[in-house]
Write a structure and sequence with these properties.
Blueprint lengths: L1 E7 L5 H14 L4 H22 L7 E8 L3 E8 L14 H7 L6 H8 L2 E7 L2 E9 L2
Antiparallel strand pairs: 1-2, 2-3, 3-5, 4-5
Helix pairs in contact: 1-2, 2-4
């Protein structure tokens, strides 16, 4: 089953994203403990795209598409903002983050630990982040 949500690139729309993902997971009887982690991962990517890729411009849009089947859940978040190259991402060490007393910088690290696969692609003139979670 495929579900879609379109939102403006405003941080206050993240609540709508979390509710949408939560509702889809609940409808499909996805376990609550795992559901919270997946919601966090999708929220983090959407927040990064809204803030870093689209500069919180409400005229820009994000589309979240969820493809839920018996083997996996695929979340595709697409936009027309600045692209992100995952191959250039260098995972920060926890020691460096603590030493620098940084509050940010762990979102993508967290997403990589929660999801089974993460890809950033260019597709049909837009940026697509594809997050996959396998159903065991």
């Amino acid at each position: 089953m495929i579900y879609k949500l379109d939102i403006a690139c405003k941080k206050d729309h993240l609540r709508e994203v979390r509710r949408f993902v939560s509702d889809i997971l609940a409808q499909n009887h996805y376990p609550d403990a795992e559901s919270n982690k997946v919601i966090l991962a999708v929220d983090e990517i959407c927040a990064n795209l809204i803030i870093h890729s689209n500069d919180c411009d409400p005229n820009e849009k994000l589309q979240l598409q969820i493809d839920y089947n018996t083997k996996q859940i695929v979340f595709e978040i697409s936009d027309h903002g600045k692209g992100f190259d995952l191959s250039e991402y260098r995972e920060p060490s926890m020691e460096d983050l603590i030493r620098a007393k940084r509050k940010g910088g762990v979102g993508l690290l967290l997403v990589k630990r929660i999801m089974d696969d993460i890809q950033f692609l260019q597709q049909s003139g837009k940026n697509v982040c594809r997050l996959t979670k396998y159903i065991h």
